[in-house]
Amino acid sequence: MYHCGPTVYQRPHIGNYRAFLFADLLRRVLELADLKVTQIMNLTDVGHLVDDAEEGDDKLEAQARKDKLDPWQIVEKVSAQFFEDMNALGVQPAHAYPRATDHIEEMVEMVEKLIEMKHAYRVGDNVYFDVHSFPSYGRLSGNRIEDLEAGARLEVNDEKKHPADFALWKSDEHHLMKWDTVFGPHGFPGWHIECSAMARKFLGDHFDIHTGGEDNVFPHHECEIAQSESALNGPFVNLWMHTKFLQVDGGKMGKSLGNAYTLDDLAERGFSALDYRFLMMRGSYRNSLNFTWEALKGAAEARRNLNDFRSRLLGEGGEPEEMNLESLGAESAVAKARVAFRKALADDLNTSESLAALFVLRNAYVHGELDAAEYPVALALLAEADSVFGFFDSIESGGLSDQEIDQLIQERGEARAAKDFARADAIRDELTAAKITLEDTPDGVKWFRG
To answer: What's the pLDDT at 51?
Structure first.
């Protein structure tokens, strides 16, 4: 799998992370199905042009001039922020994160091959792909070459044979990031050639899945297909998968609108990165998802409920064990939940229905319909679900063992009996700080972690 990663000129906002979370979900589901997955996600650190036009400065260059910084400094700063955010979101690291600037040689090689095969042409030190040389151009996006005229979607450029021809290599002596190659001393790659070259380097000429946001369909992925299949004279990718946009309050998200929130903005309102991850898992990647603070609050509450469910099962003596559903019978609540959970995932990653199966199981527990003998297998199912969704908090208890917790609870009971309520409250505060929840019930004190 190859995934279009971030353009590291500004810290990604939560809308960007929807596509990256989808890539993580897809990998986790494939691995749950016992498939061996190689996952590559690039970092675009040069060549991403403003508004995807063929003219003008790229985003990294523009940010560097605005901040009066070296573009390499911005790359390092934003890349570090990106990886911190991905870790907070519980995203499994890809097997490699190639940077565009580390693979200039591979890009130049591919551009030279396209020129040799008459799919590209050189004008001075600039090189363009000839879309008319690739009859299938437009098959992914549905665009037709005859409909792509200059002045609408495309910039006017008299160097091109056709307005839809796209840049493979550009030259500009004023560009901050440039390389001396066979195309001249002041060159830098077009955006599209980067992913083709890096995907080939790490995954070969032909691989299984390529993902990105819906904004990548055209022109980026359309151009990737054209240049890769032309250069390699064969199929490029088996399956393209794209996530729809994340909206905010029913409208567009954008920095100019003041609603391009970062994970820090969520934290300031008391929400964790995992709350946001859970919200993204509740919607289909094929549909636009509307972000509101109320929706995030609901996701946080739902996630807490599942965390609470797991903690209670653990607190009542349950321990995850091998998923042995046959011993429970087909009518068992756990068996039904697991079938529904797996079936939904197999249905084009129907995460909403898959999560719903877990809440049905939780409700069975709340209503006393789950036998204690089912707790270990229920915990195993929750562990399997967490391997896909990654929504559980880590279970921490300040280093307290079960025996130490039991001892503190006993001391608390003795303090209350002696009417030493200050000591009793202090013990409860100590347990709360260690993330131990106490419940005083008619059958005595129950406790659970989390």
So the answer is: 42
